[in-house]
Design brief:
8 helices, two-stranded antiparallel sheet, five-stranded parallel β-sheet, binds adenine
């Protein structure tokens, strides 16, 4: 998978050289390129923003550098891959979930456009639709200062679903949100710590009982913490 990121703060993405995703990049599973939007400006001050038409607080990102950046990066989509998917993180977008991560992990080429200030000139989204599939995606119902942190989160959630990135694929199956429920609690040695014992069933060696206990824990936690995730029937059970 190829991923391009456009930002006025490219160093935000230095962290993607670390850990699992860093290894995936080194192994050629993720081909990640981070770009400075200002490289597509042509004035002496490398200007990327201007005042909003119609008035209002803050600044808006100018369309010209974005247009040039996206034209160029869409031209790098591998020929066999068709059109890129162009993601703009935005608190006004659809909410990102594990299902979104899974969907996007199957794409050949993702381009992330990180907005700052009060956002990007609306015509950039319309114009980009001529280059690929445009998605405005929100991390959740809160406001960040820009798209960089949201893009980092999305790249991590998407990247770990790309085959080969996570060494043991079993660990992807049993985690929160993969089956629509929160994950069961985990324990390791010692069996007794600060007077707190690991639940007996986990020491029993009875795999059926362990699986049953873990399922109950998943349901109980989901009921308590995230009842919105349960099918309506289950949520009514109490
Ligand atoms: N940019 C600012 N706030 C955001 C959010 N909640 N999700 C994605 N991008 C954002």
């Amino acid at each position: 998978m190829r991923i391009d990121v456009v930002s006025i703060f490219p160093s935000y993405f230095d962290g993607l050289a670390l850990s699992l995703l860093g290894r995936a990049r080194a192994a050629g599973l993720l081909d990640l390129h981070v770009h400075d939007l200002r490289d597509w400006t042509s004035d002496r001050h490398r200007t990327v923003d201007d005042t909003p038409y119609g008035g209002g607080a803050g600044m808006v990102m100018k369309p010209e550098p974005w247009g040039l950046a996206l034209d160029e990066l869409a031209g790098t989509t591998p020929a066999a891959a068709g059109r890129p998917t162009i993601v703009f993180p935005s608190p006004a977008g659809e909410v990102f979930t594990q299902a979104t991560a899974r969907e996007l992990s199957a794409r050949e080429h993702l381009i992330f456009g990180c907005g700052r200030y009060e956002g990007i000139d609306e015509r950039v989204f319309e114009d980009a639709a001529g280059l690929g599939e445009v998605r405005l995606i929100s991390l959740g119902d809160y406001v960040l200062n820009g798209g960089e942190v949201a893009t980092m989160a999305m790249i991590e959630a998407i990247g770990r679903l790309v085959p080969g990135v996570v060494g043991n694929p079993d660990s992807l199956v049993e985690e929160s949100h993969e089956d629509g429920l929160l994950e069961y609690p985990s324990y390791t040695k010692p069996a007794l710590w600060r007077d707190r014992a690991v639940p007996d069933v986990l020491l029993s060696g009875n795999h059926g009982a362990i699986a049953g206990w873990r399922r109950e824990q998943q349901l109980e936690r989901t009921r308590l913490r995230r009842p919105d995730l349960l099918p309506t029937d289950d949520a009514d059970e109490g």
